[in-house]
Amino acid sequence: MSFEEFAERAGRAVTNAASDAVRPNLALLRRVRRRRVVAGGVFASLVGLAAFLGVASLLPEPQEPPPAATQPTTTTTEPSATTTPEDPSDDASAVPTLANLAVASTMALDDGATYESRFPNGTIVRGVDDGVTYPERLYGLADGTVVWDGANGIYALGPDEEAPSVLVPRNTGGAMVSRLIGVGTMDDAPVALIWESRAASPEDDNGGTLAAYPVRPAKTRGPAGSVSQFVHYPLIEFPSAWELGVDAASLLNDWLLYTVGSNGGQTVILRAPDGTETVIEESSGEEHTLQAAALAELDIAPGLAVVEHHVEYGDPDAPFGAGRLEIRSVNDATAGEPAWSIKLPTDNVPKQLTVAGEWAYLTLLPDAPELLQVNLHSGEIERFSAPGIVTLHAGLQPRSPDTAPPAACAESSGTATDGDAQAYVWLPCYDAATYDEGDPPARFWGIHKLRLVTDPRASTGGVAQRVEAMVEATFAGPTPEEQERGYSGILDPSVDALVGVTFADELVTIELTEEGARAASIGTTARAVFQATVNAAVFGGFVDVDSLRITVEGDCVAWSTYGEGPPACLTYHRDGTTTQS
Amino acid sequence: MRSYGVHRLVHGEDDLASPDGLDDVQVPGAFDQFYREEYRRVVAVIYGLTGSRWVAEDLAQDAFLRVHRDWARVEGMESPSGWVRRIAINLARSRFRRLGAEAAALSRLGLPDGVTMSPLPSEFDEFWREVRRLPNRQAQVLVLRYIDDLSVDQIAGVLGVAEGTVRALLHQGRGRLRRQLEAKGLTDVL
User: pLDDT tens, A455-472?
Assistant: First the structure.
């Protein structure tokens, strides 16, 4: 028998087996249709509720939690439709409401969109869910920014922003696929945790990286739909995306919690600042499944705590398993033992767990239009109905966003325009307190213009000569005084990096030496900072320039391949987009 | 070999019969027909990619649910059948969602169902197990080719890639699969 004949017989065996056993389940669709009818009324009620409550900043602050000593060490509450407080708050109005939650729902909309997210500031985002993205997975960050997985990338929207911007573009062409899997903080600043699956080609799956992307300042992000400058910090490298992937992650400064798994089983791992790893929980998937976990700083359990959600099977009254939320202390002698647990009043499988302050939020699988809000001190549970037909997910927008930039690296004032004899030198900025000559910079805060200088070739040179002068000045890096203020160079000044610059048809081509290209491509972060800084220097200083290419001794494709990118010539444009040729 | 129409799939002689006992369910007519005609095929495709009947059913339901929500738009597409397959394949590729589907599926194991998928003959079971070890795209084109019986241009339409890419993936997938099967001692297949 030939291979072809055998394969065709193997295929028919599957279709025959499916024909014998599989029955379409139209009951599911009946359920959805029923919810479509209900949803309109619920949505109108929520709009009214939000209007009545006003903006989030008008809501009272939550009360300070009671001292830890008064909290139960182990509390299990029974399922309830409303609340089951062990130690309820005296002030019910302290409980957040939907008015300060960003809400995503999936539904059929008139314009062809299949999901819609509404934010407290009035912004509405719509898109089409094609199964690749997770539009319903909104994550709220401590500074009020909400991030989500959208159609063309991972988006961010701050509480003071009217339109979302791209935190990181998605490349579904095979070079890299990025997925949002959690949020956290680095140096008390908000970051999005993103799984980057390195699919070097459509035929290959060769591992991935768990990376943190700062979401502030917003200038490090690009406008919606664009590919722009961004900075990220690789946290963990994985050898095989298919067999071992990261499902969820949470970062609390230098502590990292993540779940890895294969079919049916998951493991929750805590990584300490010194790199040591502890297995917090393991699941075979047969008795129970860990659906989500998040790190939190709670006074219920000493130090850091892992907040986990489990689904347990075997209860005929709970066809999707009975949910349970647990808090575990992770850095003391009681590690591994749940300090507190609560049985959840739902038989649906929660999909996402977000912890903010003393509140945990659980969103449910798509056929359950419900959001659970759990007070981690009292065990109080609030159930929100969803405006969407199928699902509701929420990110938080807290009341007092902290958007203050780092004290160092204040941006210079003034404007340089083309034709002036002035120009800025663009340098990356990071916290001066962490500056170490022997260590590559690890905490960048976007690209800042710093030094207003006289353009040495403004009166005599063409655009190419002037760009070359600015690029040389940028490569030369900051003065010692500027370094003390927190600015960094993007290349070792001793590296002879630049061959030259040409300008034609609004396109600037910067030609690097091999040595320069290697130095600029050491590490993902270094390369991203290099590219962003060069883009800022050229587009920020020269309005005549619309596009930018970097070549390595005349080879444009080489610059992309140095960075493990696609084998193509990349052209960066002023509007933040990148094209390949 | 089957061909896609604008709104519905035209089945060949060996295609699956319509399911029984569903007349009481009221859904939009065109979608109802689309669902009845396509559901089992999509389940079979996802079974080939995941190896689990339960996961395949849940992901197929999820894919049809999305199409149902967006039916007014999908109905006007050149190939609604291709679109639902693309969504289902994307869902199968996403580990997180697959785990969620497995969680729901596992919970149903204790419930009365009465119908189970017949185990495949061992040589075919081994064949598809090896297919699932291939890189994603290679596995997808082989499943669409041999389970769904699609042509190269139809597979290209489902996956949103060029026909040349499909041919290359088929060639690479077959070659790699042969080597894997050979290493397993299934030489009578070659």
Answer: 777 667 788 888 888 888
> A-contacting residues of B 104-163, CB under 8 Å?
104, 106-111, 115-121, 123-124, 127-128, 135-138, 142, 145-149, 161
Q: What is the ipTM of this complex?
A: 0.76
pTM recorded for the entire structure: 0.45
A60 pLDDT more than 80? no
pLDDT (mean) for A44-57: 24
Among B99, B62, B93, residue whose Cα is nearest residue A114: B62
Burial (CB count <10 Å: 0-12, 13-18, 19+), residue A454:
exposed
Residues of chain A found within 8 Å of residue B67, distances taken between Cβ atoms: none
The answer to whether residues A566 and A173 touch, using CB atoms and an 8 Å cutoff, is yes
Phi/psi at A45 (5° precision): -65, -40
**Hey, are the CB atoms on B27 and A29 less than 8 Å from each other?**
yes
Nearest CA in chain A to B87: A131
For chain A, say whether B73 makes contact (Cβ under 8 Å).
yes
Percent of chain A with pLDDT over 70: 48
Number of neighbouring beta carbons within 10 Å of residue A279: 10
**Within its chain, how far is the Cα of A299 from the centroid?**
27
B141's CB contacts (< 8 A; 6+ apart) are B155, B159, B166, B169, B170, B173
Q: Lowest-confidence range among A41-50, A182-191, A412-421, A541-550? A: A41-50
HSE toward the beta carbon, residue B96, CA cutoff 13 A: 21
